[in-house]
Structures are given as structure tokens and as C-alpha cells.
Amino acid sequence: MGNYKKGIETRERIFASARREFKSKGYHKATIGNIAGGANVPVGLVNYYYKKNELLIRMYKDFLAQIREYVDNNIVNHRENALLAHIICTRIFFNSLFSSESGKRLLKEILEDGLLELNDELSRDDIWEIIKHFDIDISENLFHRLMLAELGARRELLLIDSLYTQTGLLNKELIDFLSTIAVRLAGVSPHTIAENIRQADERLASVDYSQIDIFGEV
Fold it and tell me: Which residues are CB-neighbours of 27 under 8 A, at least 6 positions away?
């Protein structure tokens, strides 16, 4: 039992050190050696628990779960309105990343090198739920193609329209378009999408989600 607890604690120290490294240096310049040093463990122990990309994947998934929990508990539960929740979650995702140079740098690395998919399993489940809610009859094969189309469009639009601008700011209209690419292609009406975007504006105006951070408490 003692060794099991110690293993969990070591694993968490390594993860916390990795988040600090990714925040200060970005993904590519962060090294396993520095992560090991920050966690006060041998390099071999970092490699035992994680590959470098696995640390990024865990950080990303924790970030998404943090957003989802906050939205469900404070703004709108996805079971109440999956489309509205998805729009709001996407806004918080990109606004949080673009609130710091570290976040923008990490997103740029992810996009340029394909380190992660920006329509993860959670996002796919939400979009599938939206499509079913509106009684849109599509096959799983077509849905998979829609998600691939969204993934490609997200990557290209972000790289072209935002990450290489002088201001580095992300336009709200672009974020809302990114969150609704697949549902538009599936056939959800523009009027319905516009109404949910309007509701997202209202609900986000009354909450403070500045505590949400992909790098956590670092």
C-alpha cells in the first residue's frame, strides 16, 4: 500500500513538473531531464511513468475536463442543451489558451506539428448528441467524415486567421464558427445556431472563468 501511494505521488510530481516546463519553455524545448529535475526524480523514472507526448495528452484532457465540469456546474449542463454547452466550452477553451503567451505558443506547436486532435472524444460525443437531438439522420461513417472535415478546417483556420496575425487575438466569430462546423455540415439550421450563440453571449457575460488554465496550478 505504501509503495502504491508513493508511486501515485511520484507520478503527480512528474506531471506537475511537466506542466511547469511546458508553460515556461513550450512543448518542444521542454526536456525529460528538466522535467525529472523539477520533480526531483531520476530521468529513468519519468520515462517509466510517461512518454513526453503522454504528459501533453494528460494535460490537454485535464484541461478539457476542467472546462466541461465548470460549464455543466455553472452555466449550462450539456444534457440540458448540448449545442449551447458545446459553443460555450469551445469559447472558454480558446479564450483560456489565448489569455497568455504560453497558451498561444503551446496551441501553435500543437497545430503546426499535429501533436493532438482538436476535436477530442468528448467533443465528438457532444456533437453526436447535438445531431441526434435535432433528429438528423446520418450514418456513423458520415459522422466520422464530418469530424475529420472539422478537424482539418479548425487547424487551417486557426493557423491562417489567428496565430500568425500581429495581434495574436482570436476573433469571437471565428471561435463560434469553429465550434459549429460539423453541426452546420450535418444540417442544423443557421437560425438555431445563431440563437444558441446569442444565449452563449448572455451566459458568459455573467461568469468569471479566469481560473481555468491548461497549465494548472504551476
Answer: 52, 56, 106, 109, 110, 115
